[in-house]
């Protein structure tokens, strides 16, 4: 096994032989090509032909004998074994990839907007010059007359005092004569007793009439009694003149004898005068027909007033 020095010398000699033989082959190929071109027949004159392509044949690299390759491989393996522990292979740095070419921007066509022609400015209106003031010529005679009138004193009108009003004398009131009422002369005891007996007889007749009427009304139904009350009020309502037909609702209360205690009215047309007339009709209708049993002491009646 040879040392590293002998390996390097052998490798240098073999490499030198390879490059020398390659250079000789290339030079001989160029020389042959030039000689071939010079010997070729000239072409007839005419249009110049395009230049001929130059063919260069490269000779193969000579390969040394197998014995030398085996020795070189053995020497390389020995050298690699010796240097494997000390030589660290350098990392292969790959070149960065070429950046993609930027797309060329499309040309932008500038759109030029056609502006409308400017509107003509309105001409200023001509300023009318005011007409010159005409100075009226004053007649000298008129000036003298006016000067004389200015010096004349104008009489101030005298305001007459108002005439005194005549005060009418009010007639004196005559003194009222006092009428002396005659005192009733005392009646004898016999006449007073007769008068009292007459009053008692009248009271008893009224009581009997009420009892008779109440006994007769108890025999009728409440519906018939309502019809009597409505007819009793309508007889007086026909005497009221109205311009337009309308209905008035009457609300009133009464006692056991049919006397009206309170009354109110509401018309559809909100006629206050008509409502007051309806209330007066109910009050004039008092007393009502004597109430029957099982009838409340309040009542609502709708009265229609026809136009007259």
From TrEMBL:
Q: Where is this region: Disordered?
A: 77-135, 162-223
Xref: InterPro entries: TonB/TolA_C, TonB_C
User: Could you give a single Gene Ontology term from the biological process aspect?
Assistant: transmembrane transport
Kindly state one GO CC term assigned in the UniProt record: membrane
Q: Where is the composition biased (Pro residues)?
A: 92-106, 115-125
Q: Where does this protein have compositionally biased stretches of type Basic and acidic residues?
A: 162-183, 197-208
**Segments forming domain TonB C-terminal:** 220-308
Known Gene3D superfamilies for this protein? Answer: 3.30.1150.10
The UniProt keywords, alphabetically, are: Membrane, Transmembrane, Transmembrane helix
Q: Where is the composition biased (Polar residues)?
A: 209-221
Annotated Acidic residues bias: 126-135
Q: Which domain of life is it from?
A: Bacteria
Q: How does it sit in the membrane?
A: Single-pass membrane protein
Where is this chain's protein located in or outside the cell?
Membrane
Write the protein's name.
TonB family protein
* Native source organism of the sequence: Ciceribacter sichuanensis
High-level lineage: Bacteria, Pseudomonadati, Pseudomonadota, Alphaproteobacteria, Hyphomicrobiales
């Amino acid at each position: 096994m040879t040392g590293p020095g002998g390996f390097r010398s052998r490798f240098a000699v073999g490499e030198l032989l390879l490059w020398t033989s390659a250079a000789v082959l290339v030079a001989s190929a160029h020389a042959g090509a030039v000689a071939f071109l010079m010997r070729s027949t000239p072409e007839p004159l005419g249009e110049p032909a395009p230049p001929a392509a130059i063919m260069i044949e490269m000779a193969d690299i000579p390969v040394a004998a197998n014995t030398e390759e085996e020795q070189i491989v053995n020497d390389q393996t020995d050298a690699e074994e010796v240097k494997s522990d000390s030589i660290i292979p350098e990392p292969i740095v790959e070149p960065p990839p070429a950046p993609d070419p930027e797309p060329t921007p499309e040309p932008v066509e500038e759109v030029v907007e056609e502006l409308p022609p400017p509107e003509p400015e309105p001409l200023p209106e001509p300023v009318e010059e005011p007409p010159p003031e005409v100075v009226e010529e004053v007649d000298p005679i008129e000036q003298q007359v006016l000067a004389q009138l200015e010096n004349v004193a104008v009489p101030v009108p005298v305001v007459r005092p108002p005439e005194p009003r005549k005060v009418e004398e009010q007639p004196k009131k005559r003194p009222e004569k006092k009428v002396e009422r005659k005192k009733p002369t005392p009646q004898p005891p016999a006449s007073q007793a007769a008068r009292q007996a007459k009053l008692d007889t009248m009271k008893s007749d009224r009581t009997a009439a009420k009892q008779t009427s109440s006994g007769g009304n108890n025999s009728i139904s409440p519906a018939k009694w309502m019809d009597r009350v409505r007819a009793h009020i309508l007889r007086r309502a026909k005497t009221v003149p109205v311009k337009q037909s309308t209905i008035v609702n009457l609300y009133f209360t009464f006692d056991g004898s049919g006397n009206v205690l309170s009354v109110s009215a509401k018309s559809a047309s909100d006629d206050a005068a008509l409502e007051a007339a309806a209330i007066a009709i109910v009050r004039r209708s008092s007393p009502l027909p004597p109430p029957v049993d099982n009838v409340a002491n309040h009542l609502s009646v709708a009265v229609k007033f026809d136009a007259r």
